[in-house]
Design a protein that fits this description.
The structure holds two protein chains of two kinds.
Chain A lengths: L41 H10 L12 H12 L9 H7 L18 H16 L33 H23 L9 H29 L3 E3 L55 E4 L14 E5 L2
Antiparallel strand pairs in A: 1-3, 2-3
Chain B lengths: L1 H22 L7 H19 L5 H12 L1 H11 L4 H40 L6 H23 L8 H41 L1
Classes of the chains: A mainly alpha, B mainly alpha.
Chain lengths: ~300, ~200
């Protein structure tokens, strides 16, 4: 029985999500057992399988098949399709170290299943020295019924620990993304501390929302916002501008914000229909930098004092 | 980030709509009521501006629906385009409750089984240090995930994997919300100051 076969491993990625781990081709080691799983779609797997003929592929007793299938089921985990492509795309631009998950067709053909399960059985019997390769869910929202994981050297190869390890790696990958999202988390090591930071961040954001709404409520006794003009804020320039220092009022110029490098040509008009300031209409804020066509931000607040 | 500014635009639109709706009523609301309404409209605007169907947004919306006072505002704000979404969210909430109950039952049974195991394990005094450290670490992580679940809306019934994803989305949209609100508040305050100055003059 020639168990010293090696299979070239290739990983494929669907979608633009992760350009990480490329193929890890394990050099065959003398006397080493085969390496199991393929992370290829079914047809490719069949090709590969056929190309590397197993010595006893047909000797699989049919009785093994149902149990093998069970083992296949237990060792695989389903991955929830990624439901928020936009945000995740943004966040996951950062390369993830060693994760790339893969999509395998949910109904592998019979020979493929039998062969892969048989390989799994063999793997369970023999320790492997191959590194673990995993693939991460793709972006298209396809269901991933199976995750193929290979065991590291010296680690337990029973189905439960494999599945657990897969799950743990998933969680760790996402924790890394979260770390990059929350400022100041990169240097912290250890899940508990990172989670601490994340919790603090979320709490502070929520508290900020509360305070801001309180401020807004305190400003006007009664707000009546009337949008006469459709405003369109250009991406970036106005909206991303923060206003910590802009609140100082300038009574004569209703300039509220000045984009960097732009000479503002304020088109604001303070229209006061009534000389008595009971119901004035104030329109604040429209900058029309005709040179840049940057953005016209117009709002009208009707305030009743 | 390109999507964040689009999100901000949408959020601002919806929020102002919501404020218009809630302030069209001529009642004199005191500070806390106003603040609540403002916050509510901001939250709902945030949740609905999120085009992708994240579970926290659905959870927010359905929670707001439960509160009868606010349903009018919610339904008006969301408009006609999302009765489906509302239904989806309510269905989700129902299924979430069921899931939570099932998990609780499981936990209880596992806990009782685990008690027996613990009693057996206590007899084994050879606890290595590394095991000790890892168990402590695990406990800490568990505590914190519980707290996070409470913070993220709708996070009670999610497993850890999706919880982290939801937390990411939530943090992003919270940032957007804070930025937009801050700018609006600043603008409004400046305006009020100007007006007061003019009055004084």
């Amino acid at each position: 029985m020639n168990k010293g076969e090696e299979l070239g491993m290739e990983t494929f990625q669907f979608g633009e999500e992760i350009q990480s781990l490329m193929a890890v081709v394990q050099p065959p080691e003398a006397g080493n057992s085969f390496t199991a799983l393929l992370e290829l779609p079914a047809n490719q797997a069949v090709k590969l399988l056929h190309s590397h003929e197993e010595t006893a592929p047909n000797n699989l007793p049919s009785s093994v098949f149902p149990s093998a299938e069970n083992s296949l089921e237990t060792t695989t985990s389903s991955v929830v399709p990624n439901s928020s492509p936009n945000n995740v795309n943004l966040v996951k631009q950062e390369p993830i170290d060693s994760d790339s998950m893969h999509n395998s067709s949910p109904n592998p053909s019979d020979p493929v299943v039998s062969k892969s399960t048989k390989r799994k059985e063999r793997e369970k019997n023999v320790k492997t020295s191959a590194k673990k390769i995993k693939s991460v869910a793709n972006d298209d929202g396809e269901e991933l019924p199976y995750v193929h994981v290979r065991a590291r050297r010296g680690q337990a190869t029973d189905s439960h620990s494999l599945a657990e390890r897969a799950r743990r790696e998933k969680i760790n990958a996402r924790m890394k993304l979260l770390q990059e999202l929350v400022p100041g988390c990169n240097k912290i090591s250890g899940t508990a501390m990172v989670l601490d930071e994340i919790i603090n961040h979320v709490q502070s954001l929520q508290r900020q929302v509360e305070f801001l709404s309180m401020r807004l409520a305190a400003v006007h006794p009664n707000i009546d916002i009337n949008l006469d003009n459709i405003f369109s804020a250009e991406s970036g320039s106005l909206m991303d501008y923060s206003f910590p220092g802009m609140v100082s009022p300038q009574p004569l110029s209703h300039q509220l914000w000045q984009p960097d490098g732009l000479i503002p040509q304020p088109l604001w008009g303070v229209e006061e229909t009534n000389p008595n300031f009971i119901t004035p209409e104030n329109s604040f804020l429209s900058y029309d930098s005709s040179g840049n066509s940057v953005s016209l931000y117009t709002n009208q607040l009707k305030m009743e004092l | 980030m390109y999507t964040s500014s689009m999100l901000k635009k949408e959020f601002l639109n919806k929020w102002i709509k919501g404020l218009q709706i809630c302030c069209s009523s001529k009642n004199k609301m005191d500070l806390m009521e106003r603040k609540k309404k403002i916050k509510l409209s901001a939250d709902i605007a945030m949740a609905s501006a999120n085009k992708t169907a994240t579970s926290w947004s659905n959870a927010l919306i359905s929670e707001a629906k439960k509160n009868k006072q606010d349903t009018i505002l919610v339904s008006q704000l969301l408009g006609s385009k999302s009765p489906l979404k509302l239904q989806k969210s309510t269905n989700m909430i129902i299924s979430i409750h069921k899931r939570v109950q099932c998990k609780k039952i499981l936990k209880r049974s596992c806990f009782n089984a685990g008690k027996r195991m613990m009693k057996k394990k206590k007899k084994n005094l050879g606890i290595s240090r590394s095991n000790f450290a890892t168990t402590i670490a695990k406990r800490l992580v568990k505590k914190r995930t519980k707290v996070l679940k409470r913070l993220v809306p709708g996070g009670e019934s999610m497993d850890e994997v999706s919880l982290i994803k939801e937390a990411m989305d939530y943090i992003l949209s919270l940032k957007v919300q804070v930025d937009v609100m801050r700018s609006v508040v600043a603008a409004a305050e400046v305006l009020i100051d100007d007006k007061l100055l003019k009055l004084v003059e």
